[in-house]
Amino acid sequence: MPLNVNNFINSLNLKSKNRDFQDLEHLDGVSISTVCANLYSKFRDDLVMFYFRDGANYASVYTQSKIVSENIKWNLNIKSKKISSLIVNTRNANAFTGSDGYKGLKEIAEEAASQLTEKQIEDEDSPKKISSNQVLFGCTGTIGEKYPTEKIKNKIPELIKRIRYTQNKFIWMKAALGIMTTDLQPKIAMEECQIGNKSVKIYGIAKGSGMIFPNMATTLGYIFTDADLSNDVLSKLLKKNIDTTFNAITCDGDTSTNDMVSIFSTGKVKNPIIKNINDKKIFNFDKALHLVLLNLSKRIVKDGEGATKFITVNIAKSKSEKEARVIAFSIANSNLVKTAIAGEDPNWGRIIMAIGKSGVKIDLKKLSISFGSIKIIEKGQIFKNYNENEASNYMKDQSIDILVNLNMGSKSFTAYTMDLTKKYIEINADYRS
Amino acid sequence: MPLNVNNFINSLNLKSKNRDFQDLEHLDGVSISTVCANLYSKFRDDLVMFYFRDGANYASVYTQSKIVSENIKWNLNIKSKKISSLIVNTRNANAFTGSDGYKGLKEIAEEAASQLTEKQIEDEDSPKKISSNQVLFGCTGTIGEKYPTEKIKNKIPELIKRIRYTQNKFIWMKAALGIMTTDLQPKIAMEECQIGNKSVKIYGIAKGSGMIFPNMATTLGYIFTDADLSNDVLSKLLKKNIDTTFNAITCDGDTSTNDMVSIFSTGKVKNPIIKNINDKKIFNFDKALHLVLLNLSKRIVKDGEGATKFITVNIAKSKSEKEARVIAFSIANSNLVKTAIAGEDPNWGRIIMAIGKSGVKIDLKKLSISFGSIKIIEKGQIFKNYNENEASNYMKDQSIDILVNLNMGSKSFTAYTMDLTKKYIEINADYRS
User: Does the keyword Amino-acid biosynthesis feature in the UniProt annotation (chains A, B) (predicted)?
Assistant: First the structure.
């Protein structure tokens, strides 16, 4: 199963090297298979299947948009406690495709379930019947275009034929490449940790902002672990950690109809049973899951459209986390802040503006602002040793840290974003010309 | 009092012709005077005084930002029922200037009050003493820089010396030019109407988005009428009309610390007394005021940074005006919508996205979307006669109308914005290089 060169060419745009990626190896209980279903005009992997031969517990979080794609409706309707397969297609978001789009998924799920049942009979000592409501879908790409049901359904046999029970780093890379739209880089991350005295793996892949007519930014994230955790525990851990990772990033403040992050637990490692996420034994897993989600989230931002700078906005000592979040995103979503950073300009006036427009009441006399370790505002006044040249120099860095200390409480929130450049406009306005 | 050429050069960038502007003539009870106080490095009018020799009733609305400039604090503290003067400076926003900035205004107000009192003695039969709390301030420009108190105070005698009691269109143009920062065009508008059987004038000037280090978008609007209306009636009329005019525009979703719109009534026309804004006699004035405010607002958007297209976003048949407003601004502030329009791309998928992310619950099956007269979505589906070429052609227009019909109620809201272009990034990122 060689790497599809066309997927890799994309990822070379940013001159990323193999060493930039962690080595994801075998993760027991999950199999990956990728094909080219000709969803694009060029030849590239665009359809990925994850197969859990013994099923997987799972949990998902979905876009907050009030208009959601058909696959998210499908996923929300699934009543099965165990998932057998996750199928992800690119190029078509299956949003605004109406009952046809939903029916397409049903057909594909039935085809996949029937053929995976046959594979169970071939491969397993005690084969299980797999039903269509054990198939989850991720869709990303164009909205409003007819869903390519036939193209995808026709590739199910090939996807299943390609299933191998031992994974390696190339197969994970192929999966990460296969779910990309116009991402420049694949996004993979991993951690290992202990639950009780058992070692478990947490592997993740994601895709970020992609643009295809009529295009919108979409985010997909899939996490896999060989740990044995219930749907309930997975759901609580995912929700807890998503707030400070995938829900802490913004590229342009626009939300897709298709965003989803899912976690699958194959249960191959027989760790102690966890009934409650406050159980100390899950503490390390919780932390490691956060790291994987944060790692993927940051990779999405770094690969944001036209990005030249990675920006961290940390709001400290707020009265509530909610207020800190509102201020952080007011700054992170401000075009004026983002263009100033693109221009390498330590334009703190725009930070003040963004704090002010957030609507959160602050005590100006207590406000401190720093860029990295450079103090700019202290107790509501320009810091006495503030040196504009020093600040200008700092703005040349690739990573810019904005620290706003409200000195009003004990809560904090960190948002991640990138700068706003001409390249962003080019990608989003000029791509047709 | 010749026009300052440097102010006009700015305004010629867009090749505007004199006929693009209405002719504001004499408005009884208001005098205008402009000078160059050397607030910029180049010679241009940057300080404007409006003088109401017999006082003026007035009302103001201010920025919703939680961080406001010192002049807005000053204005909010004024207890006087009548205003004698409005002084507007550019180049310095007097925001984040602390007690020094406030003290500066106090000094200038005292100087102006004392010298205007002397002018009263010279010019009036029954001279009145003018006090410092009859002076209102508009400031716009850099934030966080020391307020140029001395430069402004030293120019008060010259401002007062230049006061003439008869205004003409050049004087109004000078005032509109004198309050600009990096606006490309002056913004003036006028209407005439009747209150009872009396003809009254409503004149207005405004400034829009301007960028000077550390720069932020600022909006100032000043309306003058010779009608005789109380502070209470002015305040109610202004608040009522601001929602659908100045508060219906967005350039980049960022809010300044300095925004203000004020209305002044000189009372020179002895129209019937209006006690209640539901009085039929004020109906025409109400409508005319709306036109003046809307005219100025649209001029601000058209002159928005880097704008090449003027975009109207009309949300119709909503359950509530609030929901219509939320959806309208979700579209109008979306970078993806604005870049698509810059690229002349009828990318309706992004409109759907922006409706979805607004958080307002809609009934997808009832949704219709048009670009101008071109139907795109009808009852939640792509319109059967939708023709992509026709839509692409429409996008070449300078004015783009987006109409979203929710078919869920009877309320509506219209927002105005412009496209997001590389020029915007240039102005806001590259201006220092």
Answer: yes
